Amino acid sequence: MFNYIKTNSMINSIKVKGFGLSIVLLSLGTQVFAIGAKQPVNETSHLDTVKPLKIGDKVPDIVFNEMLNYHVPSARLSDFKGKLVILDFWNTGCTGCIQAFPKAHRLQKEFNDEIQIITVGKQGADYPHTLIKPFMERKKGTKYALELPTAVMELNNQAAKEVFTYMVAAFQISGFPQLVWIDKYGIYRANTRGEYLSSDCINAVLRDTDSQLPFSPAMRPQSFDELEFLIKTGNGRETFGSAFSRYIDTLGSYNLLGIRKTNKTDNWRVYCVNRPVIDCYKMIYQDSIEGLLGDYGNRNVIIESSRPDDFYKGTIDKRPLLGFDYHAFEKKYHYSYELILSGETSKNEVFTRLVEDFDRFFHIKSGIETRSMKCLALVISEDKSKIVTARKAENPTSGYSNDYEDMFMKNWSINQVIGILEGRLPSFKIIDDTGFKGKIDISIPSSFFNDDIADLDSKEFASLRARLLSFGLDLKVVNRSMPVLVLKDTRNPKK
To answer: How far apart, in whole angstroms, are the C-alpha atoms of residue 333 and residue 15?
Structure first.
């Protein structure tokens, strides 16, 4: 599975010093590292403009400020001198990344001291599901345990955030999993997708200094205006129209940006790059239902089809790790689309054209309807005295207890708590029926974040309710009329 990533800021340049080393494989997960010459970035802070490194360039001496599964708490890239280093970017929500852990461990043992695979990734303390150490604890003893040296990238730490931003810019990282290959001379050799982590590719880099691995399809981060796509323009001509294509191997998946005008021509432009159809529909209708575009559980979408197969699945639907080839799924069910219309066209006309194109091409009748939906309502329990009201006007914080048994949230709004709950109750929309406008302190069992809860009769849901009740809150099943996006399959209508 390839996950798109984006940083909030971009650093422009850095003064660094090259070094000599053998090839090292760095796998970037949710760990923290720093980059510097003689000192880590957070000590020197010599950041101006970052230019992307080119294949064949020297790589700066990267400093990993926080390491897990390593004999010391921090490390430098030069510590692995004499080895092939592969930087493997990953995160805790990337199925394809996690699927690759067993292979990575096997290859590390196979090549032993010739290589070093290091997992490196980003995490945010405000987003418990991204935290690396609890993830490693949950996977311990399973097939997908992570035992490789891992660098943790905490984005609430300014130095770590700057380093991660540098890495994204220097190596043009645009998704997970993505591998950066650095040879024994400290030379940037390749940037590939995760499937190129193999014995053949490692041998090619180790044994042949002239070997070239294919660039990652995601290594094409371009601006909205610059992406050359399905509709070719140029020669001073304005070209209008729309086009679809199946999955494009030479591109990654781009964020869905919605309906907007270009800066260059003031014409309307809309595109979806390698996305499932349901994600494109949510982009089209995002102004009709609040939060629709970010509705990863598709709680606001109803599929009416007698054959609701994988065609209707979204990008990050939870899937079993075993027996699922995500790349094959992408090639079969992901599509690309582009629309360019004159700037004189109204936005409503652009919307109408989008709906007509997608409905006609995919044999769907789409629209917004009001339906009675089964929801969960967060309410105040009978014992209101148990609500722990936040007393300090501080920024919201979250974290784990020392034993990792509980995740705590301090000074959080009810909507923020609902966001956390919806993350593990993907089949249910949660509405706020508390009427409470203040901030609260609350804790939730860490086990809640292990797996999604689909059954409201399960012991996991009962455990969650018990914890909420201890803080004066509860979840109750209700039926509410609300607007939803309905996709009706015209070739296989629901009977």
So the answer is: 44
190, 164, 194: which is closest to 3 by C-alpha? 194
Give the list of residues 6+ apart from residue 386 with CB closer than 8 angstroms, or none: 469, 470, 471, 472
How many whole angstroms separate alpha carbon 315 and alpha carbon 104? Answer: 24
Kindly state the tokens that stand for 297. Answer: 């559980």
Average confidence (pLDDT) per 10 residues, the chain, 495 residues? 34 28 39 34 47 89 90 91 92 82 95 95 78 88 92 86 84 85 89 86 83 61 63 75 88 71 85 88 93 84 85 58 64 90 94 97 96 95 81 72 76 90 86 92 80 85 93 95 96 87
Q: For residue 492, give the 3-state DSSP assignment.
A: coil
DSSP per-residue string spanning 339-351: EEE-TTS-HHHHH
Residue that has been written with the tokens 């990953």 in this structure: 90
DSSP codes joined into one string, 191-225:
EEEGGG-SHHHHHHHHH-TT--PPPPTT-----TT
* CB-based contacts of 418, cutoff 8 Å, min separation 6: 378, 430, 431, 432
Q: Which amino acid is at 257?
A: L
- In the numeric block, the tokens 């090639």 are attached to 331
Cα distance between residue 486 and residue 285, in whole Å: 11
Nearest to 399 by CA among 137, 125, 66: 125
Q: What's the predicted TM-score (pTM) here?
A: 0.67
Q: How many CB atoms lie within 10 A of CB 346?
A: 10
